[in-house]
Amino acid sequence: MKPTPSRDQTDRADEILLLTVDQVSAALQCGVKRVYNLISERRIPSVRLGRRVYVPRHLLRSWLDAEAVLPPGMERSGFSPTCEEPLQTSPQD
């Protein structure tokens, strides 16, 4: 049984720069083996530190943004996945 993370650990979760394969697997809701395959195919950016493989958090987000299939009529240049609505590219009247 895993110990419950302390409040300090959960507050620092957003500060984590490198994600483990298990964390990426949980975030993408897919198997660990699939994540390793995506990494070996160089589809997901990764960093090796010794024998361990990590995925930089910001590169995983960028990869997801690039892989997203957008609905027809929504251009990637005006879309911000961090916002609920597309960015305004010109002032509205």
The CATH class of the domain at 16-67, by name, is Mainly Alpha
Q: Determine the N-to-C terminus distance.
A: 58 Å
Q: Helix/strand-derived class?
A: alpha+beta
Q: What shape does the CA trace take? A: globular
What fraction of residues sit in β-strands?
5-15%
User: In terms of per-residue confidence, which ranges show pLDDT below 50 for 5 or more consecutive residues?
Assistant: 81-90
Total strand count, please? Answer: 3
* Helix-strand sequence: HEHHEEH
Strand order of the largest sheet: 1-3-2
Average pLDDT works out at 79
| Largest sheet properties | 3 strands, antiparallel
Topology:
Elements: H1 7-11, E1 18-20, H2 21-28, H3 32-40, E2 47-49, E3 52-56, H4 57-67
Antiparallel strand pairs: 1-3, 2-3
Q: Explain this structure to me?
A:
A 3-stranded antiparallel β-sheet has the order 1-3-2. Helix 2 packs across helix 3. The longest helix is centred in the middle third of the chain and has 11 residues, at 57-67. The protein is α+β, with helices and mostly antiparallel strands and 93 residues long. Helix content is 35%, strand content 12%. It has 4 helices and 3 strands, in the order αβααββα. The radius of gyration is 17 Å and the shape is globular. It has a domain at 16-67: Arc Repressor Mutant, subunit A (Orthogonal Bundle), CATH 1.10.10. The termini are far apart.
